[in-house]
Design goal:
alpha+beta; OB fold (Dihydrolipoamide Acetyltransferase, E2P); 6-stranded mixed sheet
Length: 1277
């Protein structure tokens, strides 16, 4: 049998094929594809997605064996098929003609009748009358009509038709002949019978056509335009509209950026407008390209193409209607490669900031104009340039790889400050190289002037100047001595000049510190005062002394400073009374005391000693007058200032603020750190008030846990690396459900869940405990265990577990194994259904109190027990295989007030009974009776609800009447009818008020389908609400209703909420695995694969199989996953599965197979994870050998050293840990890495060794430091 299949993936021995049949796999071996590749595919291998006609060689339950051999395809025989459902489009078969019709022919294949439309006959101009009944033809299946189940065939040789020469999309064809007319269009003959074209009814004329025969007649000659080609039907699609024939027909190949077009306004939007260029071509004009103009729908406009995305059909176009760009004579700037320094281009301003302008051009090219490159940099740019303003720019600097473009609005080469060249040894002037003798005072210099070695006067950070701006060499005068080029860049270069003791130029010489300070100020965008200013003429101003200090300063120098101000995170100090600098709070003390702000001990006017560090001061400060900027950070103690924040290092930070449940600290002048509140070592009761306890700038210490991508370090004060059962930690409340428990956030970013029975040891105090937890939001809890499926921890806040000395009043039930028939325990009512009550007696342990076993008072009024009530129950039956418990209700501890009455209340006097009922049902202040104008009795309630509606019926009377008719047999008292009606009326009003309060309670668990319907109507895109709705039906054993709810959720949730829909799909697959059959599970699984990420759905199904102990199904599923998704994640999932089952050999074989098919970059991580599995589930010695091999091959991977050391410490292998530490410290690592290993080794010996071992570690560390110092000194010599 011949079928059509597509290449799904490339395997080791062939190709996995997709034949379009759900649940059926197909395989094409390399042997059966060799001839096809050589004859039909130019020797190239098959590509994924390539469609082929294949012959079925054999079938089995697992897959089809296919072949694409040309000989097999020619000699293929049609196999008998049971139904048309087994056919896919593309099947090639031999057909027999059975009927001749006007619109085509009828054919028979095997026992199925089909049809061939006349446009699908073998030749272009074949007619149905050219065929005879009984004639055999070869055809290809196009489709099976879904309604009539009739197959439609095509007799043309698909894939061999080519467009005739001279024709293309958009071409005009004259003398086209009308050969036939149908109700839907006309058929044209092009190129003297060489091509058939169809004209749809909508393209016959510009106006609406009711009947094509009114416009065209057979044999008529006309002119048409080709719009498209149908490669399946081997025909062309044409149009006869006069509007389409006139002008130019645009195709995707004709568009070039900058071309000018004309169109009409199709639609006006707030963000721009849509232009129409033709019947099938439209484009968009953004607001920035409107140029402040307004347009109307239908208005003709001139536009210019600024961007095109030709990969779409039709292409996506963006235009500009800005008058400046339309009239610009400069060529469009469309690509970064076209940018040449000095080129003049036109663009539009899209953003103006104090730092500069963002300008856009054609083809998504953007450029940046610094503020200094504008004409008036002193005026705010937002006031000078508006959004969408046309600007003419000059290209200054281009970085094509990073797509960075620096521009300038100064078009004249003489714009800006002239450049001074003094003592030039060699200079580039234009394209000519000139010697120092050629460059004299007063020489005019070109734009491309580069001083090669003229800046020997600069200090160490500024060794060489390379200026690209125009300059003028002139003698040093007070007005021009400080003028330099604005686009100066600094590089290294030789230094040959008169130097002082520090190695820097002598500022007392002719060309000294003045040029140095001016050049340094220009580099840092700092305005330098003119020498003629009044302040510089002040004889008291030590000009040369200050500049000499700045130029001579180097790291490690000591200075005497005076405190000018004590600010929030720094001391502002003055050097020599004129140089302003700062001392950051992190550089005040080497070891600041915990909880103290080190800046508090300083006062204005204090004299302190400061040292220059290696840290550069990166902030720009306005400098004028006597204030000069020091280029280094200063410290109160001698230090380099550098601090390496690596995981495991203890650092001290200074409190800044609290944000996102974390304390934000400053650890260096340029780096920040965060300390999560849950990672702080303080009691949980103090966490809500931590903001009041901390003071600005106080010192706080912590260990670096990890470093984020933005270089922010995350600290921790807890001595734990991961959460383990038995640990007591702080937790923060996320959500609290009075029927399920609490969802918490734990340290290290983990999640925890706590049941109602885990909150306190005495259930009678549960209500107050829940209120305290809701108010404080923080609690202390103990880790019990972890759910591997959800990665959530089960925690308990019982004081008996947290503190250890509190008496346990109500026992703790963890699993069904903790219960025995006859046990009496306390629980909380979690839900009320038709068959009874569900009572929670432990974490995820619920039992059912059947309605038939309830006491008489509860049978009479079934909903007497409210959700959340504490009850005493007795275990009647335990079904461990089904995970169910049947309970008997023994006692109710906290019932609502209405059920605390004595049984003889109903026999009391009528007047007394009326008073008691009023006290029972009216919880709010006493209701007052008022009357409306019509005389209807109304209520005035404190909730703000009003009954004063003239058309409102007496609801209480209706309720009273309904209950009177229902319970007529129970009313045996002799109360007069008038007094009974008033009592019932107030009772009904109270019931109605309670129902309204219950509906307004957001924390109340819905108890009926109507309440759930209202809930999902309020939150239609919340998967949690839908999942609760499904669980409600499952608790009542109504599986089909749960399925319908899931289907309803999938149709209701917005298609944008992919995560929410994925949650529903996961729940549906879980439901089918638990309550459905294999067939229903496979159907749900297949539908989930179509709508979600395949790997995610496969992983979820495998987790379900493992949790439900379906190991065989899980193994089969994993094998399919490994073939389809060859990724490290899948390999680790399978390895964990095999290891937990004890199939060590299968897991090891999987590792070897994974190493062969995965890329080399994943090998190290995969081997290390399998080695950890060996330690946990397999052979520890094998795990050690695996780690040893990794460290031999990758000795520089310090992370693997740390993981290996940690796992040996957990295993208790003391000697192995010492050996590993000795190897690590003997390796050649950076000093910072070695410091971590030595510190970790020392901490280990303090906990597991003795004084001698600690002393040995310290001696080893001292020896390493001495060796490193000796090597460094010898290398410097």
């Amino acid at each position: 049998m011949v079928i059509q299949a597509a290449v799904a993936s490339v395997e080791d021995h062939g190709y996995s094929m997709d034949c379009g049949i759900h649940g059926m796999e197909a395989f094409l071996s390399h042997t059966e594809s060799l001839k096809y590749l050589r004859l039909c595919n130019n020797g190239h291998p098959l590509a994924v997605g390539q469609i082929l006609r294949c012959v079925v060689l054999s079938t089995s339950e697992r897959a089809l064996q296919l072949s694409v051999s040309p000989k097999r395809l020619e000699s293929a025989q049609d196999n008998e098929v049971a139904s048309l459902d087994s056919l896919v489009p593309g099947v090639h078969a031999r057909l027999t003609v059975t009927q001749i019709r006007d619109q085509g022919i009828g054919v028979m294949w095997q026992r199925f009748e089909g049809c061939v439309h006349r446009t699908h006959l073998a030749q272009t101009w074949d007619l149905p009358q050219d065929y005879s009944v009984g004639q055999e033809v070869m055809g290809t299946l196009l489709y099976v009509h879904p309604g009539s189940q009739v197959p439609h065939w095509n007799l043309k040789a698909l894939g061999r038709w080519q467009v005739p020469d001279g024709l293309a999309v958009g071409a005009l064809v004259e003398d086209a002949k009308v050969v036939a007319i149908d109700s839907w269009g006309a058929h044209l003959e092009l190129l003297d019978g060489g091509l058939r074209a169809v004209v749809p009814k909508a393209h016959v004329a510009d106006k609406d056509v009711d009947d094509v025969r009114d416009e065209l007649t057979p044999g008529q000659k006309c002119t048409c335009r080709i719009m498209a080609f149908n490669m399946v039907d081997c025909i062309a699609v044409a149009t006869l509209k006069p509007s389409s024939l006139e002008g130019m027909h645009l195709t995707r190949d004709m568009f070039t950026l900058g071309m000018k077009l004309e169109g009409k306004v199709h639609k006006v939007l707030p963000s721009g407008m849509v232009l129409s260029l033709g019947p099938w071509m439209r484009g968009f004009v953004s607001r920035v390209h409107l140029g402040g103009r307004s347009f109307e729908v239908g208005q003709p406009v001139r536009c210019r193409l600024v961007q095109v995305e030709a990969t779409c059909d039709p292409p996506r176009l963006w235009f500009t209607c800005h008058r400046g760009l339309l009239s610009s004579r400069r060529p469009p700037f469309c690509d970064y490669a076209e940018a040449v320094p000095g080129k003049i281009v036109d663009g539009l301003v899209v953003q103006a900031t104090p730092q500069g302008l963002l300008v856009i051009f054609y083809g998504n090219v953007r450029g940046w104009v610094p503020a200094i490159e504008t004409h008036r940099s002193s005026v705010p740019l937002a006031e000078q340039y508006r959004f969408g303003q046309l600007v003419t720019c000059r290209v200054v600097l281009l970085e094509p790889e990073q797509e960075r473009l620096t521009l300038s609005l100064k078009l004249d080469v003489n714009d800006g400050v002239p450049m001074i060249v003094k003592h030039a040894e060699e200079a580039h002037i234009g394209e000519k190289r000139k010697s120092p003798e050629d460059v004299q005072e007063g020489t005019e210099m070109d734009r491309q002037c580069h001083t090669m070695a003229a800046t020997h006067l600069l200090p160490q950070p500024l060794k060489k100047i390379n200026a690209e701006d125009a300059g003028h060499v002139e003698p040093e005068t007070p007005k021009t001595a400080n003028a330099i080029a604005t686009s100066t860049t600094v590089t290294d270069g030789p230094q040959e000049t008169t130097k002082g003791d520090s190695g820097f130029p002598d500022p007392t010489k002719e060309h000294g510190a003045s040029e140095v300070a001016e050049l340094w100020s220009s580099k840092h965008s700092v305005p330098v005062q003119d020498d003629t200013s009044p302040r510089k003429k002040d004889p008291k101003f030590p000009h040369h002394k200050v500049r000499n200090l700045v130029s001579r300063m180097k790291p490690g120098d000591k200075f005497e400073a005076t405190v000018l101000a004590v600010e929030k995170f720094q001391l502002r100090v003055s050097l020599l009374g004129d140089v302003t600098a700062r001392v950051h709070v992190t550089l005040v003390d080497a070891q600041p005391p915990e909880g103290v702000n080190p800046l508090q001990r300083f006062k204005v006017g204090d004299t302190v000693d400061v040292y220059a560090t290696n840290l550069k001061f990166k902030h720009t400060m306005p400098i004028s007058g006597r204030e000069l900027l020091v280029p280094f950070e200063l410290s109160h103690f001698q230090t380099s200032g550098e601090r390496n924040l690596m995981p495991g290092v203890t650092v001290t930070g200074f409190f800044s603020h609290i944000e996102a449940n974390s304390v934000h600290l400053t650890v260096t002048p340029v780096r920040k750190a965060i300390l999560p509140l849950l990672s702080m070592d303080i009691p949980a009761s103090k966490l809500p008030f931590i903001a009041k306890q901390l003071k600005k700038g106080q010192a706080m210490s912590g260990v670096v846990r990890k470093v984020h991508e933005d270089d922010t370090a995350e600290l921790s004060q807890l001595d734990i690396e991961d959460l383990q059962p038995g640990q007591v930690v702080n937790a923060r409340l996320i959500s609290l459900r009075y029927t399920e428990g609490a969802l918490l956030v734990l340290p290290l970013g983990c999640r925890g869940r706590m049941g109602l029975t885990d909150i306190c040891d005495d259930f009678s105090k549960l209500e107050s405990a829940l209120k305290d937890l809701s108010d404080s939001q923080y609690t202390r809890c103990q880790i019990l265990d972890m759910n591997p499926t959800t990665q959530e921890y089960h925690v308990s806040a019982r004081k008996s577990r947290v503190q250890g000395f509190t008496e346990v009043i109500d026992r703790e039930v963890a699993t069904l194994h903790d219960l025995q028939v006859g046990d009496t325990v306390k629980g909380i009512v979690s839900s009320c259904i038709k068959v009874g009550y569900f009572v929670n007696i432990g974490f995820q342990v619920d039992g059912l109190v059947h309605r038939n076993r309830l006491p008489a008072i509860h049978k009479h009024n079934f909903k007497a027990l409210k959700v959340g009530s504490v009850v005493v129950v007795k275990v009647a039956q335990i079904l461990k295989n089904m995970g169910k418990v049947d309970l008997d209700l023994v006692e109710t501890l906290d019932q609502p007030t209405s059920y605390n009455r004595k049984p003889d209340d109903s026999q009391s006097s009528p007047r007394k009974r009326k008073s008691s009922e009023t006290e029972i049902w009216c919880d709010e202040p006493q209701a007052k009776e008022v009357k409306t104008e019509e005389g209807l009795p109304t209520l005035s309630l404190s909730e703000g609800f009003s009954w004063n509606v003239t058309t409102a019926p007496d609801l209480s009377r209706l309720v009273m009447t309904a209950e009177t008719e229902k319970d007529d047999s129970d009313n045996e008292d002799d109360v007069p009818k008038q007094r009974k009606t008033a009592a019932e009326k107030k009772k009904a009003e109270a019931e109605l008020r309670q129902k309204e309060r219950a509906l307004m309670d957001q924390t109340r668990e819905p108890e009926t389908e109507d309440e759930f319907d209202r809930l999902v109507l309020a939150s239609p895109n919340s998967s949690i609400v839908w999942l609760r709705y499904m669980a409600f039906h499952l608790r009542q054993a109504e599986v089909e209703k749960a399925r319908r709810v899931a289907d309803r959720a999938l149709h209701t949730i917005s298609f944008r909420e992919e995560t929410e829909k994925l949650n529903i799909w996961k729940a549906l697959v879980t439901l089918e695995n638990t309550y459905g059959t294999k067939e229903t599970l496979q159907v749900a699984f297949g539908e989930a694969l179509k709508c979600n990420d395949g790997l995610t759905v496969h992983k979820h199904l495998m987790q379900i199989y493992v949790a439900s102990s379906k190991n065989e199904e899980a193994e089969q599923l994993f094998k399919r996953m490994f073939i389809k998704y060859r990724s490290p994640e899948v390999c680790l999932l399978g390895g964990t599965f095999y290891m937990k089952l004890g199939k060590l050999e299968e897991a090891r074989a999987l590792l070897q197979r994974a190493l062969k098919c995965l890329e080399r970059q994943h090998h190290v991580g995969l081997i290390s994870k399998f080695a950890l599995m060996e330690f946990k589930y397999g052979d520890q010695e094998r795990g050690k050998s695996m780690f040893d091999n990794i460290l031999v091959n990758y000795p520089k991977r310090t992370d693997l050293w740390s993981v290996y050391i940690d796992i040996l410490i957990k295993q208790g292998d003391v000697e192995g840990v010492r050996t590993l530490f000795a190897k690590a410290t003997s390796s050649k690592f950076q000093p910072t890495k070695m410091k971590i290993f030595f510190k970790k080794w020392l901490d280990f010996e303090k906990g597991h060794g003795d004084e001698r071992s600690v002393r040995d570690v310290r001696e080893h560390a001292v020896k390493y430091v001495e060796q490193t110092s000796t090597f460094t000194s010898s290398k410097s010599k």
